Amino acid sequence: MDEKNSLSAVATLHFNQHHRNQLLGHRFKSVKPSAAGHADGRLQAACREMESLFLSYLLKEMRASVDRSGFISGGKAEEIFTSLLDVEYSKRMSSAGGVGLASMLMKQLGGQLDKNEDPDAS
Question: Long-range contact list for 14-19, CB < 8 A, 24+ apart?
Answer without folding.
Answer: 17/87
